[in-house]
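Page 37, top half.
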Amino acid sequence: MAYKYNINTSKKDNSSSVCLFFCHAIIQIINLFLNTFLVAQIYYFVDGVNDYIFKMCVFIGVTYLFMGLAMIPFSHWVEKSNRVWPYRAGIMLRTALVIVSIFFGKNLSQMLVLAGALNGISNAAYYAGYNTIKHEMVSRKSMRGFTILSQIGQLVVTIIIPVIMGKLIDVSTFSQVSIYVLIICAIQIALSFGVKAKHPEGSRFSLKSYFKKLKEQPEVYKKIKYLYVGALIYGCTTIVTNLLNICIMMEYGSNFGLGAISSVFSVVSMVTILIVNKWSKAGKRNALYVINAILPFVCTVLFAIWPSVWALILFNLGTAISGIIFKTIYDIYRNGILKEAGLYSEITEHQALVEILLCVTRVITHGLVLLLALLQSLILFKIILCISVLSYSGIIIFLLVYEKKFIKNKQEVTVENALTQEETQSIKTKEENRK
């Protein structure tokens, strides 16, 4: 496990934090290219919609399968190194996939298993390093602000880039745009050298020791198990996003249309984050949760009854709003729970488990849709799309239950105001000394 985090001496490394922030914003550009537009390119080189769905599910399913399998070995590497090299390796592997896209272009649709495996391994290396570095670099008091600011930064990128990237692919070629993305990858690699971390002595990755420590604090153990259930539910929503992208490509048939819609909903997501952050508090979000649990279901029924462009846009809108509300609030709890409990040495284990659980349900759901594609039924496709969107309602209900069960006295347990056991004991000792 990682070194003992000292709440008294821990300071925010501003220079490294800035580099980490911009590196993570840039990764969204590369993710858009590889996970949205690369998948969209398959549409132009397949025989029919069912073949497209099948190959899309192969690429994404293999991505998450290899990411889940590689997460533990890369987490071991993170604990044995200075954290930065596994993180940087993920960036370099992602760059390698972009280079493959340059040389193979449309033929990439014939080697989706290889591309998906490389994509998954690069994800595992990147997030195993990033999640640990972020927690050890950003101070306890700054974690909530960093999480929200980081999400806004990512959304700003996804407002501008999709339209530009989609238009460039339409007027040139996918391989030519890959060259521009490669330049962005080079900038990201350069920025990653500004991220500094250290190698704690005697650190090791041990899930057994992690669970042993959790069981010593039953209340924390109960809370964190709920968060892991939330990760399983949240993993199901990825299939909805990809099925919606299929619908958009079928409707518009252009990368520009896909990019334009992605940009519009990034604006909606950013506005939603700002509103939720400013105007809502844990324990007082019941109305927000109920409305956003119903919203995706209503949009789904509308799309099923009236399958039109406008219904598709409303469908996308409902899932975008519910999804970003969950991600914003869930990430605050996920990123703060160990520091709140005084367990500063188990960050890598905790984050690896969350990522693995997300991958499990993503692989299962894409596998089910892959089987659906073999049946070659568009009616079944729409039925599965409507059923899968209920996962958005599920994640919002999860937050409602979590806050009712664990948030005491209507106060939000965040990394800003939560006292650790160590701090509480310190305060008690000081009071006793005064007396």
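Page 37, bottom half:
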Amino acid sequence: MSDAETLAERVRAGDLRLHELGEYADHETAAAARRHLLEVETDAELDAVSDFTFDAERASDAHIENMIGGAQIPMGVAGPVQVTGGAADGEYYLPLATTEGALVASVNRGLSVIATANGADARVTKSGMTRAPVFSVSGIAEAEEVVSWVEENTDQLREAAESTTSHGELLAVDPYVVGDSVFLRFVYDTKDAMGMNMATIATREAAEVVEAQTPASLVAVSGNLCSDKKPAAINVVEGRGRSVTADVKIPRETVEERLHTTPEAIEEANTRKNLVGSAKAGSLGFNAHAANVVAAAFLATGQDAAQVVEGSNAITTIEAREDHLYASVSLASLEVGTVGGGTKLATQSEALDVLGLRGGGDPAGTNAEALAEVIAVGALAGELSLLAALASRHLSSAHEDLGR
């Protein structure tokens, strides 16, 4: 009996628990033991799950608990396309990991059309990762006292928060009062890191200062006014992570020849679908399928997949002009990084290498900003391609042709 099988039998006998296996064997063997246990208990065959390329020890230490292997998602590439951004500058291929047939083809079509228009412009217009603890007070009088103290002592909070990190910078502390609850929305520049953990640790340190200097008592380091991984109007309005816009001007003849429709038809489809339809639905996203591209790019490059929720907070605008079509997509809260988290995993690191954006930028923060700009251009390409397919009534036939 192998070491993995022996460990699995000890778990079945109740001598060990799944999470303790890493204490009795290396992480590769511990994962094999968990797979063996599952195969015995469930009759599943986990040959594909066992075939992974990332380092088991690093993954178990930083990314996953009770590891059994890896989940594999097909990865494709779209592009290249010229991106002129505040940080991005040049031709980029965009890696996309997805199981949705026709998505990469659609984005690639959009990028091809954008390329014929000499590329797209993109800019990060606002940057700031947030964490918003909630404090309890006795009533509105104490709430006002806390808010006044925070406004007068932001430098003291900044010193406490920044003592926990060599990279993050506290940009602002915005107070919100609801009865006997006080929310303080801390906003950080996290440079090339997505920065959620950085912001949480820094905010916890600052919250202790608030507790020591005011009547407030910390209830939770996150009071959901941040707001993380949930649809939230505050992120649509104020932004979280990177707020980024990409736009392009496509000659009228290119629209007609490459997209097989007219600027006017695409504008009408966008107005009636993305704007009026979304408004009627009470949507926080006024776009066709921006989250499709955000999700595929996130999975490919090691971003936090749950933050696609915020990434879908996007508005697509289309205007038919005399000699061209103007198109833009504005993503209010795109939370991305090129260091830390899943960006360290093997395939995700390679995808960032394809983009030329792995690791920290020079100056700090520019790689993450460039990634946000390229993803925004990819989302714009997806919007153009889908809207054109709808306007020309080619959407269903495209899926049929690709066998999806």
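Margin note: The mean pLDDT is 94.
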